[in-house]
Every structure is written in C-alpha cells, then in structure tokens.
Write a structure and sequence with these properties.
The two termini are 27 Å apart. Helices cover 42% and strands 19% of the residues. Strand 7 (141-148) and strand 8 (151-157) form a beta hairpin. The protein has helices at 42-64, 83-100, 109-115, 163-173, 181-188, 211-227, 231-262, 277-290, 307-318; strands at residues 2-7, 12-19, 22-30, 73-79, 104-108, 131-136, 141-148, 151-157, 266-270, 293-295. The protein has nine helices and ten strands. The chain binds adenosine-5'-triphosphate and fe (iii) ion. It is found in: Cytoplasm. Its cofactor is Fe(2+).
C-alpha cells in the first residue's frame, strides 16, 4: 500500500509517502514569512501553502521514487487548524484522488500527533493499547487515553493556553523570534533550572492551565528589567532553564496523576513541544524512576509533518475508512 499524505493545518506545508507503515519520504516547507510578525498570519499562511503544495508533493514523490499512478490512496488533514490553510490541502487532496480515481482519507491532526508512534522506525518501539498520550503542541495540551487507533478519549486538557504558547509567549517576552520554543530549549541547556522559581497553577484533576504562568513570567521579567535593564541578556540561560523546568514539573505532576487514576503505565508524548530536550530527558528518566514505559517520537515526527498523517491514513486504509468529495475541512473538530 502506498499512501500520499498532505498536511497543511497551520504554517507548514508538508507531504509524505508511506509504504504501509514505513516512511519513504517526509518533506516539510517551513514558512519563514511569519517570523517578522511574531506569530502565524492566516492569510499569508494559506497563500504560502498554495505556492508550496505542488513542489512539496513533487519532491515527496520523487524522494520516495514513486509515480502518482502507484498510489493507493490520498490522506489529508481535515482539522483542527486554520481554515484557509486546511482548505489548500483538502482541495488538492480531493482533486488528486478524483483524477487518479483512488480513495480519499480524512485525518484528525491531533490523532496523527499521537499515532506517529506507529510509524515503523528502527530503534523506536510502538506502544500497545491502551496507553496514555501526552499531546503538547502549539494549540493543544491534552492527556489522552488511547484504547485503539480509532478509539481515544481526552481525560485532561488545557483550560486556556497550550504548552507551546507558554514557550512561545515566554520567548516573545525575552525578545526572541517566533516560534521561540526551540530557542528556549537551546538556551535552557546552558542554564540553571533552579535559579528562579515559579509557582504551579492550582488546577484540580487532569486539566491544565498555562495563562497564569505566562502572566507570572511577564511580571517577573518586568520587575527585574526595571531594576536592571540588562537582566534578560545577563540571565537568559537561567531564565529559560527555570521556565522550562516549571513547565516540565507541571506536565509530570499531571502525568503521575493520570497514571494513578488509570493504572496505565505506558506513556507516549507527541506534538511540537515533544521536541523539547528537557521534556524528552525527563520522560526517559521516568522509566527508571516510576517504572513507566515511555515513548518519545523521532524528532522529525514531533512538529507538524505529513508522515504522521500518512500513518493514520494507512490504518484507515486497512479499515476502509474513506471519505467522499463532499467532506469539509474543520477548524475545530470533534475528537
Ligand atoms: P496543534 O498541533 O495544536 O494544531 P501546531 O500544529 O501549530 O499546533 P506543532 O507544530 O505541533 O503545533 O508544535 C509547534 C509548537 O511546538 C510551537 O509552539 C513551538 O514553539 C513548539 N516547539 C517546537 N520545538 C520545541 C522545543 N524544542 N521546545 C519547546 N517547544 C518547542
Ligand atoms: Fe501540530
């Protein structure tokens, strides 16, 4: 089975070709245009998708050494995401499936961030059902009980900001370019995570809240900069390390609670923020510390990519879960 997968939910145009559960090619065109605006501008994103989609798909097919007529199905991201961006991917997928007369498969982007763990990769184990997934990305923060490929329930999620926003907004406060998450990660490596302490939000159960932390960080920086204008420059690494640490502590508290409540000790992380090296190390160490089995995705399957759409596409193909041309893109989508 050869699946062509297309992902265009936000600001990255991505295409991948999978042969069953193996990735033959995984191509991403990042849109740098948003950097100067400090965030994703939807109109510019959809325009850039229109420019990128044909070349990105061409490169994905070439790298996979596959021609269009060998394809078994086309999978695309149906949502959640920016409507204008989603429409570029879905329209293209629909036309191609019609032209080639092959099935069309709609994929939920958040399911894909989780199911990326089922891509066949040397050195990476696959979780067995049921397992817990911590999805941490630019727009979401969820703990999901994954019972099967097509049966999962959200047991905890953020009530306001996503973890990725906490990283990106902190970066903005520090004067770093968008998206700042990876930069915080870099600076944190050189810093002392115990230098500054922040308080955890008081939110019961498995839900999260990050907007209070963002305000706390803002006031902390403003106060210190008022006393010393060079505060940020002089302490950047320690600030980044301390912020990253409080975020990790919050995530780990909730994961421990989720394990206690469900009795499930297999934990998989996914989403762009799962690229964070501090989070990856902490999760790895949790295996020895708590007796969990943790699953950390290959780096290229953390931030948005089409390979993760392709693996869901492959599973749906096996189960005849196809859609027709009348399928609509959804900015918000039922889980
Ligand atoms: P969603 O998946 O919720 O729709 P999205 O697709 O925009 O959102 P992803 O591409 O999955 O988001 O993740 C992007 C986020 O990941 C950004 O907030 C970015 O800063 C963050 N991120 C990426 N790498 C790192 C890192 N190393 N450390 C911390 N955050 C990171
Ligand atoms: Fe994403």
């Amino acid at each position: 089975v050869f699946i062509l997968a297309i992902e265009s939910s936000c600001d990255d145009t991505a295409a991948a070709v999978l042969q069953n559960d193996k990735v033959l090619s995984n191509v991403v065109a990042r849109q740098s245009i948003h950097e100067e605006y400090g965030g994703v501008v939807p109109e510019l994103a959809s325009r850039a998708h229109q420019q990128n989609i044909v070349p990105v798909i061409d490169v994905a097919l070439k790298k996979a050494n596959i021609t269009k007529d060998q394809l078994s199905a086309i999978a695309f991201t149906q949502g959640p995401g920016l409507m204008g961006s989603l429409l570029v991917g879905s329209s293209f997928a629909k036309s191609l499936s019609m032209a080639l007369n092959i099935p069309l498969i709609a994929v939920n982007h958040m399911h894909a961030h989780i199911l990326a763990h089922f891509i066949d990769e040397e050195g990476f184990d696959k979780p067995t059902f049921p397992f817990l997934a911590l999805t941490i990305s630019g727009g979401h923060t969820q703990i999901v009980k994954v019972n099967d490929f097509f049966n999962m329930e959200i047991i905890g999620e953020t009530t306001d900001d996503a973890v990725g926003e906490a990283f990106d907004k902190t970066a903005k406060i520090l004067g770093l370019p968008y998206p700042g998450g990876p930069l915080i990660d870099q600076f944190a490596k050189e810093g002392n995570p115990k230098k500054y302490s922040f308080t955890k939000p008081k939110i019961a159960g498995l839900d999260f809240s990050f907007s209070g932390l963002k305000t706390q960080i803002l006031y902390f920086i403003q106060k210190n900069v008022a006393e010393n204008p060079n505060f940020i420059e002089e302490n950047k690494a320690d600030i980044c390390a301390s912020v990253q640490q409080i975020i990790i502590d919050i995530l780990m508290d909730k994961l421990r609670l989720a394990v206690a409540e469900t009795g499930i000790t297999q934990i998989a992380i996914g989403g762009g923020v799962s690229a964070n090296s501090g989070i990856r190390t902490t999760l790895k160490n949790a295996e020895g510390k708590y007796g969990w089995k943790t699953f950390i995705p290959k780096f290229e399957y953390t931030t948005d990519n089409a390979a993760m759409i392709g693996i869901v596409g492959y599973q749906k193909f096996l189960h005849d879960k196809f859609v027709d041309q009348s399928t609509v893109s959804k900015a918000r989508i039922e889980f």
